């Protein structure tokens, strides 16, 4: 197989290099190894799936030449009346950076599709996939070891990494593809994140600028696990403790339910 699975299995920080992500993405989507790649991804442990997704959402940024080309194209793009076209940006030729990010986005969406259980899957299979995804989110962005000291930190990390995943999908989806892409992403998350309960509230912070008071509101999130009980009694107790803590905060802060999806 052309995809360097051995490298991914022994993931190190160097795999986050921006030039590496497009190569992985393009190899994953090769037709001749599609089925084999699918089987491999479906059975990936979180310790390998996490660095793979982390690598793929590491977007490339425009080079100086690409920025200059885009600027001049935008300046000179005019409509029939001689005025600057409202669709000037859409007339700019695709560049390597956009193509690489598009390939990475396609690979991310394909991974989510592959690991999402079928509607007719057994409850056990569905929960195994949910657990796989939760553990993957908890490990994204760092080493493969445990990154949290308690359940609250773990689920806040899960939420933060889901936000990064969603941000990548949202930013790099073309306007004409939004309906289909968001439907695919949100559909996968609806299944894979079914055990997570998330709430949102506004936190106010007051500032004094040039003698004038200003209040800035920032969105904050609460999260707890609401899935089946674990065989580990200690983990069950921790889940229940976190749930009670979060629900108390929800009432105190007037937090509202939040769905893990990209708004359409």
Walk me through the structure.
The chain has 264 residues and is mainly alpha-helical. The protein is built from 11 helices and 3 strands, in the order H-H-H-H-H-H-H-H-H-H-E-E-H-E. A 3-stranded antiparallel beta sheet has the order 2-1-3. Helix 2 (20-28) packs across helix 7 (96-115), helix 4 (46-56) packs across helix 8 (123-139) and helix 8 (123-139) packs across helix 9 (151-171).
Features:
3 strands; single chain; three-stranded antiparallel β-sheet; disordered N terminus; 264 residues; mainly alpha
Short description:
This protein is mainly α.
Our estimate of the beta-strand percent is 5-15%
Mean pLDDT level: 84
How would you characterize the largest beta sheet? 3 strands, antiparallel
Q: Percent range for helical residues?
A: 40-55%
User: What is the β-strand count?
Assistant: 3
Produce the secondary structure layout.
Elements: H1 5-9, H2 20-28, H3 34-42, H4 46-56, H5 64-76, H6 88-91, H7 96-115, H8 123-139, H9 151-171, H10 178-192, E1 196-209, E2 212-225, H11 233-253, E3 256-258
Antiparallel strand pairs: 1-2, 1-3
């Amino acid at each position: 197989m052309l995809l360097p699975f051995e490298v991914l299995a022994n993931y190190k920080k160097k795999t986050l290099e921006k030039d590496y992500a497009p190569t992985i993405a393009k190899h994953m989507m090769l037709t001749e190894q599609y089925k084999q790649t699918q089987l491999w991804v479906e059975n990936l442990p979180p310790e390998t799936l996490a660095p793979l997704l982390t690598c793929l959402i590491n977007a490339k940024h425009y080079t100086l030449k690409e920025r200059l080309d885009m600027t001049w194209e935008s300046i000179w793009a005019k409509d029939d009346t001689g005025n600057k076209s409202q669709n000037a940006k859409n007339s700019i030729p695709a560049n390597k950076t956009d193509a690489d990010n598009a390939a990475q986005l396609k690979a991310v969406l394909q991974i989510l599709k592959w690991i999402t259980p079928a509607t007719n899957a057994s409850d056990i299979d569905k929960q195994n996939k949910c657990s796989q995804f939760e553990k993957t989110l908890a490990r994204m962005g760092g080493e493969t070891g445990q990154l949290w000291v308690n359940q609250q930190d773990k689920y806040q990390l899960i939420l933060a990494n889901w936000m990064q995943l969603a941000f990548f999908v949202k930013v790099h989806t073309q306007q004409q593809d939004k309906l289909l892409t968001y439907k695919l992403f949100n559909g996968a998350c609806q299944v894979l994140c079914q055990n997570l309960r998330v709430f949102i509230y506004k936190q106010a912070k007051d500032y004094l600028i040039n003698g004038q008071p200003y209040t800035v509101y920032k969105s904050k999130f609460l999260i707890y696990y609401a899935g089946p009980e674990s065989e580990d009694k200690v983990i069950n107790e921790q889940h229940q403790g976190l749930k009670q803590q979060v629900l108390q905060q929800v009432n105190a802060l007037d937090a509202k339910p939040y769905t893990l999806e990209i708004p359409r």
